[in-house]
Amino acid sequence: MSMMISEVYDALKEAGASEEKARKAAEAIAGYESRFARIENASTQLRGDVALLRWMLGFNLAMTVAILWKVFGG
Fold it and tell me: What is the DSSP code string of the chain?
């Protein structure tokens, strides 16, 4: 059974929509809401990956500078 947002269903019923149309519309809106939640989760995962890549790049840069300092600096 599909999820349904009861507030939307109640509002559509009160506005004069038939029970079947109100139910289908509330289920469709609930489906879109779950899609946005998945997009938000993917966005959070992407931010975490970017943060990890920044740390890796910083560490690599620091090691490269240290090696170059050791080889050419003294």
Answer: -----HHHHHHHHHHT--HHHHHHHHHHHHHHHHHHHHHHHHHHHHHHHHHHHHHHHHHHHHHHHHHHIIIII-
Q: In the structure encoding, which two tokens stand for residue 38, read together? A: 């998945």
What's 16's DSSP letter? T
Count how many Cα atoms sit within 13 Å of the Cα of residue 68 in the half-sphere of its side chain.
Answer: 6
Residue 29 · residue 8 · CB < 8 Å: yes
Tens digits of per-residue pLDDT, 30-54? Answer: 888 777 888 888 999 999 999 999 9
